[in-house]
Amino acid sequence: MVEPGDVVMVACSGGKDSWALLHLLRAYRDIVPFEFEVVAMNLDQGHPGFDVTPLREHLQTHGFRFELVVENTHDVVVAQTPEGKTFCSRCSRMRRAILHRTAAKLGANKIALGHHRDDAIETLWLNMMYAGRMRAMPALLPGQGGGAAIIRPLLGCAEADLAAYTESIGAPILPCDLCGSQPDTRRQRVKRWLAQLSTEVPDLYASVFAAMSNVEPSHLLDPGLPGVAPATAAVDDDDDDTLVAPDAAPSPLVRIRRAASRTAAADGSRT
C-alpha cells in the first residue's frame, strides 16, 4: 500500500481510528528502509459546536505536518437528505470529493482512511443483507484519472485494539454529531447483531475477516467468476454439505479443510 516516494495524506477526523492510523503510519515510516511522507488533513464540515483546537494542538505537539480545511457540508447534507434517509451516503460523497481535491493541492498520491476490520465486516454484511451482493472494502483502490489512490492500512486491526491504542497516546477524540444523530441505522443494527453473535461465536470477527481473503469461486453462483458452474448443475457433496459442480475435483485448500475437519471431529470424539 505504501511505496518509496509516496506522499500519504491521512484523513484525520479526530476519531479514534484516524488518530491511530496517523500515529502508526508515522511509526511505520520510521522503520521501513525507504522514504515517504505523511501529512494529516482534517475537514471541518461546519458541525455545530465543532472545535478543531484540541486536534490542532495535538498535531503541533507531535510534530505532524497538517492541513486544516473548512467547508460547510453539514448544512447541505441536512437540507438535501430526504426525511427518513440517512445522512451517511451524501456526506461521504461530499467529503470524499474534498479529500481528493485537497490531496491534489498537497501533492499527495495516496489518501489513507482509518477503516478497520470491524468496518469491513459490517460493510460485507450490509451488502449481503440489504443489497444482495458480496462486497466489503478494498485495502488499495487505485486512483482514477491521475487522482490519488485510496489505502486502508488498518483493515486487519480490531476496533477495540485501536481504541485502546488511541487512549494510550492521549489523542483528543472529536465526536461527529452528524454520524451518530440518527438512531437505529442499518449499520448500527448490523453492528449490534454482530456483537450479539460474537457472544456465541467468540472467533466470529476473525473468521468472517479470514473468509474475505479465502474465497472459493467454484462454490459461488456468479457466472462472471472463473470456474462457476450453472446453479442447476450443482449437486450435493455429503462430505461438507456444500454444492460442487459435477466431476469437479476439490481444490487443495478444500481437501486440507476436510482433513482438518475430520481430525477435529476425531479429536472431539476422544474427549
List keywords for this structure.
alpha/beta; Rossmann fold; 2 domains; two-stranded antiparallel sheet; 9 helices; 43% helix
In a few lines, what is going on in this structure?
With 271 residues, this protein is α/β, with parallel strands linked by helices. It has helices at residues 16-29, 53-61, 74-80, 88-106, 117-131, 159-169, 186-198, 204-212, 252-270; strands at 7-11, 37-44, 65-70, 110-112, 140-141, 149-151, 235-237, 242-244.
Largest sheet: 6 strands, mixed
Count of helical stretches: 9
Which series of helices and strands comes N to C? Answer: EHEHEHHEHEEHHHEEH
How many angstroms separate the termini? 45 Å
Q: What structural class should be given to the helix and strand makeup? A: alpha/beta
What is the CATH class designation of the largest domain?
A: Alpha Beta
Strand content: 5-15%
Mean pLDDT: 81
* CATH topology value of the largest domain: Rossmann fold
* Spatial order of the strands forming the largest sheet: 3-2-1-4-6-5
Supply the CATH superfamily name of the largest domain. HUPs
Reported CATH architecture of the largest domain: 3-Layer(aba) Sandwich
Form type:
globular
What's the number of structural domains? 2
Poorly predicted parts? 231-271
Structure report:
The protein has about 270 residues and is of the alpha/beta class. The chain has two domains: about 5-185, HUPs (Rossmann fold, 3-Layer(aba) Sandwich), CATH 3.40.50; about 220-270, no CATH class. It is built from nine helices and eight strands. It has helices at about 15-30, 55-60, 75-80, 90-105, 115-130, 160-170, 185-200, 205-210, 250-270; strands at about 5-10, 35-45, 65-70, 110, 140, 150, 235, 240-245. It has a six-stranded mixed sheet with strand order 3-2-1-4-6-5, sandwiched between helices. Helix 5 packs across helix 7. The protein is globular, with a radius of gyration of 22 Å.
